Structure prediction request, 190 residues.
Amino acid sequence: MTFDSHSLFTMTIERIPPQEYPQVGIGRRCLAFGIDFLGVWLVSSLLGSNNLGIQFVQILVFIVGWLILRVIVPYNNQGQSLGRWTFDIKLLEAEWARIPDLQSFLKREMIVGLEALLISIAISNIIRNPTAILLILPLVIDCGAALSDTRMRQAFHDRYARTMIVSSRRGYSLDIKFKRLVEMLRRNMR
Prediction:
């Protein structure tokens, strides 16, 4: 048996394709985002005033609340924020299919948080300035990328942070419970 010294030190590393996870529909993702957004927005809007202009305290509370709900909680809770837990989805690294590190959470949520903050500003100013509705465009464009990505459903913020949203077994299953309730009501009405 002979060994070639060169072959002992040269190895080929094959890239293993990521596991195929069940895709999460855009509707579930939007509802989970909506729950997280409403929670942070309600708390920050309590500190707002009726004065015109930018409410710095309200914006600061929104940013801190967003970081807590969308970065710290999921980082310590298997990639699930309150909204994601409610709809049985979680955030994973796209390449290794594990919970992202804190830096990935921060990179991702800086983008999504800014877009959520713009929506918050739009809601606060829509009555006085109807063109404020245009502040939702960055979120629509960002998340619109997920519609064109049929394989992993990654929005631009997911691609930037190298993350993906996948179905999870752990959660409240609000969408499933709602479907069961509607089905039960339909049967009872017959």
